[in-house]
Amino acid sequence: MKCLHRLLAALSILSLVTLGLATAACAYAVAPVSDPEAVGFSSSRLARIAAWQQSQINAGAFSGAVSAIARNGKIAYLRAVGFRDRAKTIPLQPDAIFWIASMTKPVTSVAAMMLVEEGKLDLAAPVHQYLPELKEMMVGVETTDPAGGPSKLALEPQKRPMTVEDLLRHTSGLVYPEGNTAVHKFYRDSGQYWPSYARDRTLKDLVSGLVRIPLAYQPGEVFEYGLSVEVLGRVVEVTSGQPLDQFLDSRLFKPLGMVDTAFWVPPEKLARLIDPPAGVPIRPDRDVTKPTTMFSASGGLVSTAGDYLRFCRMLLNGGELDGVRILSPATVRRMTTSALPPDIRFTSDTAVGPRGGSTFGLGFAIRTDATQSWVPGSVGSYTWNGRWGSYFWVDPAEQLIAIQLIQAGTENYDQFWTPFRNLTYGAFLIPDHGAPTAATAAIDQAALAAFEGTYRLGSPSSRDMQVPREFGGLGLDVAMEQGIVKVKSPIPGMPAAKAGIMAGDIITHLDDAATQGLSLGQAIEKMRGPVNTPVRLRIVRKGQDRPIELSLVRAQIRLQGAADLRVVSKDGQLLIEASGDLPLLDFEKGAATTVVPTSSNEFFVDGGDHTRLAFLRDGAGPMRLVLNPGPWQITGQRIN
Fold first, then answer.
1. What span, in angstroms and rounded, lies between the C-alpha atoms of 566 and 562?
2. What ranges in 538-634 are assigned the alpha helix state H?
3. Domains 33-106+270-425 and 470-558 share a fold
4. Residue-level pLDDT at 28
5. For an engineered disulfide with 505, which of 139, 310, 314, 487 has Cβ 3.0 to 4.6 Å away?
């Protein structure tokens, strides 16, 4: 332990640490590598991560961040930015301890699968086989009055019992209190939910309280993120014969060398615990400075970037790390492959679902769509995140692990995940790519002026396709509840908000076609379309006697993460500057880069990573810009 702390103290004085993984006398020893380029990254582009995080710290989004990026078994990036305390007086160190919230869920899921491998737990078995008190849980069915009258909640028995697999894949019908259905309201009003999280309670107490609350859906029919993993943690306790903290510590944390991961922070480590976000009330279950018996299986753990990297490396290695086998390769593949039935319904289609090109396995969201995704990453990449902004993903195709730990007091955490992920993939080097050797060409000012304009590129990453960063739409965030399309929130300034559409409104028709029977993805596609085209909506609003008929005109919706380049010509030279949300390859925001011509329409950057550019036009179509033409190219077109 002393060896480990000496090592981490040495690391903390470095502004950018490039490390290789190796096992020695310490719990997890590390050895330097020469530079990130050795594992396929650009050092200068990796440094943009810290610059972006510092901008967020300056804006007050969070006080500090620790990030770790590993590839091919070596750490390419480990850096702490900002401060440990809200007053911004104590610099943050790489070994800082964070409450990782729902990044606990994958850990509990691994624990359950360890018991499956040992034959102590059956994925197909009813949960009541292990927790008999749940056998008679009923399902709440809400009936909504189409005329806008009060809804009613009826109870019906389960069509089939919830299974252990349902707990792992969030199809159990157990939900969180946040939501608009009568069952969600029941969670909030029953008095059974939050008191169960007191630090002197137990998982057994929590499960006993859930018995009094109906399931929101029939088991196996709907994916909704919720309390499933808390119940799974209790199943782990019953089948292992140990409290969850003891099982995790003896069977997972100690074997993997996760020396700082636990359900609370002991006094001798409190100096490394980052402060919670400013202005956020700290519920008792989130006060990790005190011992607890409430071992929240879905959100109770604290950890460090180094510890969680060990956990992810075990998964990426097929269940083994440094000679310690936790799971079989077959089990890891099963956990990171879609476990959802083909006819599953999604109540929200953002982090998991067809809109995001993803699905869910046994403990992880998984990218499945080869043509689109909210964020870059190979098909088969798996991920999860936590309240206050903790986030990780594993990309097996790239042999990549990335972790960002922050504590942000907002519900809009993806504003921090998306840039981190884009900047990570945007730092990949182009294989076998160097400066052109051809002689430079002379191009007159008139020819250069033909290339001027702003070019929109879908992503700063060359690794894959993503969801278009802009499209025609209404500016609505919607969810599917009990087969009904319900408005979660309108985007300020967009057509829906301007028309007075409100959270809680029910959209019953789109262009005279009923939304009943549509999937959430189908309803969203009907709301999208070319900019400046109309769409008719029929809306039911609580308290209104009659439906509301509206005609809206689709506007341009622009998502976070667009990568734009501005091209200008001056004094016989072409200058290029990043003008979107993020920098791109050799191009920064606020600093124009001069490119060198090699032909009448091709250029390169004489320095940095030697980005190559080609301007192309197909007939009368818009001018296109191709960066690094070839298998890793990024393509965009001129928008003005």
1. 13
2. none
3. no
4. 38
5. 487
CA-CA distance, 212 to 227, in Å (whole number)? 14
CB 276 within 8 A of CB 388: yes
Q: Is 543 left (phi over 0), alpha (psi -120 to 50) or beta?
A: left
**Class (C level, CATH) for 470-558:** mainly beta
- State the Cα–Cα distance between residues 16 and 76, nearest whole angstrom: 9
Checking if the pLDDT of 267 tops 50, the result is yes
Whole-number average pLDDT of the chain: 87
What is 112-240's CATH topology?
Answer: Beta-lactamase (3.40.710)
Asked if 75 and 309 count as a contact pair (C-beta separation under 8 A), the reply is yes
Residue with tokens 């993806």: 414
Nearest CA-CA partner of 418 in 376, 477, 383: 376
Residue 64 CA to residue 85 CA, distance in Å, equals: 8
Rounded CA separation 67/80 (Å): 7
Write down the pLDDT at residue 1. Answer: 39
User: What residues have CB less than 8 Å from 93, skipping those under 6 apart?
Assistant: 8, 12, 80, 84, 272
pTM of the model: 0.85
**Residues sharing a CB contact under 8 Å with residue 400, sequence separation 6 or more, in sequence order:** 69, 70, 71, 394, 424
Helix (H) or strand (E) segment spanning residue 586:
none
Question: Mapping DSSP to helix (H, G, I), strand (E, B) and coil, where does residue 344 land?
Answer: coil
Of 544, 375, 529, 556, the closest CA to residue 461 belongs to 375
